[in-house]
Write a structure and sequence with these properties.
Blueprint lengths: L4 E8 L11 H17 L3 E5 L1 H6 L1 H9 L3 E4 L12 H15 L7 E2 L11 H6 L4 E2 L7 H6 L6 E2 L13 H9 L5 E5 L14 H4 L4 H16 L3 E2 L2 H7 L6
Parallel strand pairs: 1-2, 1-7, 1-8, 2-3, 4-5, 5-6
The structure holds zinc ion (ZN).
Length: 242
């Protein structure tokens, strides 16, 4: 039986884009999430927007000091599928330069897990070696992954699944194949239940969401999983590349 490897990743961004535009997740959710990860000794990869890094440099400094990996989540959290090539290149280069003031940054994840295959070369040119913009639960992964010039490690399951009631959630998690890439957002740990959001964005947010993540980490630990950041997963896991 192959060893179960799990990457816990966080998209560090404004609150629930494109519906809200605050930063309660960064201000209120992040301290709680970082404390949980430190308690559980789980290293994570934080795909951070350049905009958040400029507004909250102390938060980025803290996560790097906590032993976590810093990744790039674009500059402004606009969808790359809506950007012309020149603007996309500027987003990538600007965010990479800002984030690399804090730490080495090798991994990229596009907002909304949508990234045009034609722009992959821009990631390579900007020094990224790993892309996690795809998702195993999206059709584009099965269409595009072979054309990549970069190592691609897709997300395994969408973030709201981790907030489902335990029995349903565990039924999902049991289906996942190693290496498993989970992701969450700091705004999920703020109570957004009464905001005007899509149901999957707001249900069971706040304290419950943090408890769910604690349960998920414990569940994988009981199954003998090793938690790893994306950079280390890329080094050791059998992943798709070309
Ligand atoms: Zn995002």
């Amino acid at each position: 039986m192959t060893k179960l490897r799990v990457a816990f990743t966080v998209d560090l961004e404004p609150d629930c884009p494109p519906y809200l535009d605050g930063f309660r997740g960064v201000e209120e959710g992040m301290p709680r999430l970082l404390a949980l990860l430190a308690n559980e000794r789980v290293p994570a990869t934080f795909f951070t927007t350049g905009d958040v890094a400029m507004r909250y440099p102390d938060v980025v400094t803290e996560l790097v000091a906590g032993g976590h990996e810093l990744g790039c989540h674009g500059m402004t959290h606009r969808a790359f599928t809506s950007l012309d090539a020149d603007v996309a290149k500027h987003e990538i280069e600007t965010s990479a330069a800002i984030l690399r003031r804090f730490a080495g940054v090798d991994a990229f994840r596009a907002p909304y897990l949508r990234f045009p295959p034609a722009y992959i070369g821009m990631l390579c040119d900007a020094g990224f070696t790993l892309d996690s913009s795809q998702a195993k639960y999206k059709l584009a992964y099965y269409r595009d992954h072979r054309s990549a010039r970069i190592r691609r490690i897709p997300a395994s399951v969408t973030s709201s699944v981790l907030r489902l009631p335990r029995l349903i959630r565990e039924a999902y998690l049991r289906q996942l194949e190693s290496p498993i890439v989970l992701f969450v957002h700091p705004w999920e740990f703020v109570d957004l239940r009464h905001e005007h959001l899509r149901l999957d964005c707001r249900f069971r947010t706040g304290d419950v969401a943090l408890d769910c993540v604690a349960d998920v980490l414990a569940w994988f630990k009981r199954r003998g999983a090793t938690f790893t950041c994306m950079r280390d997963l890329a080094r050791t896991a059998a992943t798709r590349t070309s």
